[in-house]
Amino acid sequence: MLNRRQFITKSIGATSVGVLATALGKDLFAAQKGSQEISHSKTEGTVLTLLGTHGGSRMVKERAAPSQVIVINKQLYVIDCGSGVGRQLALAGYNLKDLKGVFITHHHNDHNLDYGTILNLAISAGLNSKINTYGPVPLAKMTEQFLEMFEYTDKQTPFPMPVLKELVVPHETTPGLVMEDENVKVSCARVIHPPCKTHTLSGLTQKINPLLFLVTLLLHPN
Q: Which of 51, 75, 102, 218 could link 133 by a cystine bridge, Cβ 3.0 to 4.6 Å?
């Protein structure tokens, strides 16, 4: 039981800590924002970076979860979003404000666990343009659920940010042409990868049904 003097002393202390934490938080945010100002102005042509190559759900210290990024004309196309993909992009020197598209090859958690996270981190990095995402069913439902999860927390930030659900456009893939823009053309072919029960964009193959998808990136560097 606190007496009156102890209560007042602790309350003042807590208030001071709260004010200090708020001030430090703003300074830290500014510092973080500055540290994220990594530009692709010097990146020309096409660059492929393997962000993670460790398959499976177990985390290991030697390798990161599956993901890769293709940079074409200063824009990022991320393929798979294993755990920690945002951190891996930062370590590789990329800025998520340059994110152009996200591809999920198949719905194993080592490939899609941070799908929603990377979208949220992109707007935190300053992205304010449309993000197209591509992957097998049920990508649209998963996107909706991720956006619902982040909706509350995004409203709690003291800093102005775009509304994520107004920027993200999910596309569920079918065999053939998936998308084509000024930089890249993506098409699908059926492959096999257990134990998925829906279509995938995976390059992994094994002799077991059902048939799934393979993604083929036809790059057109300048």
A: 102
